[in-house]
Amino acid sequence: MAQSVPAPSAQPVPEITPISLKAIAPWAVFFGILMLVLLYFVGAEQGATALVSGEDVHEWVHDGRHLLGFPCH
Question: Which regions span the lipid bilayer (predicted)?
Fold first, then answer.
């Protein structure tokens, strides 16, 4: 019982083009600023530098504070 194996066909290898730093930089800056704003609201809002009055922001990010190790009470 002989089985024949088909010969592998030569497929062209797709060329990987690198992404330039000029293309990545605006997105990196955008996400960096977004992460800093998020870190501020989770870690420092409702303190001495509060931008929003009341307890609303604190209640929305309360569990995130504990998850990231920020003391809040």
Answer: 24-43
